Amino acid sequence: MRQLTRFNRPLIAFLSIILSTQAFAESGENAQTANSTKPLKEVKFLGLKLIDANLNTVRTHLWDIGGFKQASTTIRQRNIDKFFPKSSIRDSYYVTFHYNHAGDVVSVKRLYRPYSIENSNKRTDIQTKDVALKLIKDLGQPSESIRKGWGGTLSYQSYIWQDETMQITVDREGGERLGNVYIEYRLKTHDRYAVDKDVKT
Asked: Where is the signal peptide, in residue numbers (predicted)?
């Protein structure tokens, strides 16, 4: 028995070194993956870079990609646009863009339908986790995850990504389990009450 143990010692030592090296390499890869997430200022919505978006670029871009109908009540508005999907993102009820007086985008909200074939092969209701998982692939883990609702099956998870430029929230309307899922982008660098004035000197 002693001879067998002595014989295995070099092998055990060798395997320990291999496993330690592998674990170290994997931890390095995980750290690199966590640090390689996209900055929120680079986030795009429907192919539009939000940090640079304004009323004119939003309307032009959605017209160019097609598949949306603008709510007639917002056509002459300068602080809000509301678009209803016709052939694009049919898993959503609508998308709203809010602007400040200068025309810069200050927030974007996309309200999902309860069910969508686009999100699942099964007609199961959309969960906040379904939307969050898509964002995690691009942005990494959320800054915050909050359990909302009250006890049992009526609770759900809300997710937030944020930095100094933007806050992205995946939540439900009314903060309750029966509310429809939405994703909202709030741009911190664009003042909601900023006014664009031509000052003549």
From this structure: 1-25
Asked whether residue 50 falls in the same domain as residue 29, the answer is no
What does pTM read for this prediction?
Answer: 0.76
Return the residue matching tokens 């509301």.
82
- Residue range(s) defining the domain that contains residue 49: 40-187
Per-residue pLDDT reduced to its tens digit, 131-149:
999 999 999 999 999 999 7
Whether residue 159 is contained in a domain is answered as yes
Which residue is associated with the tokens 């927030």?
Answer: 107
Three-state DSSP state, 5: helix
Cα torsion 172, 138, 160, 151: sign: positive
Query: Rounded CA gap, 162 and 101, in Å?
Result: 24
194 falls in which pLDDT band (50, 70, 90)?
Answer: confident
At 96-136, the pLDDT tens digits run: 999 999 999 999 999 999 876 455 555 678 899 999 999 99
How many domains is the chain partitioned into structurally? 2
Q: Where are the alpha helices (DSSP H) in the chain?
A: 2-35, 55-65, 128-139
- Domain co-membership, 29 together with 103: no
Asked if residue 47 and residue 20 are part of one domain, the reply reads: no
Residues 78 and 10 in one domain: no
Report the alpha-carbon distance of residue 31 to residue 47 in Å, rounded: 28
- CA dihedral angle for residue 52, residue 55, residue 60, residue 63, rounded to 10 degrees: 120
**Same domain, residue pair 169 and 82:** yes
Report the percentage of the chain scoring pLDDT > 70: 73
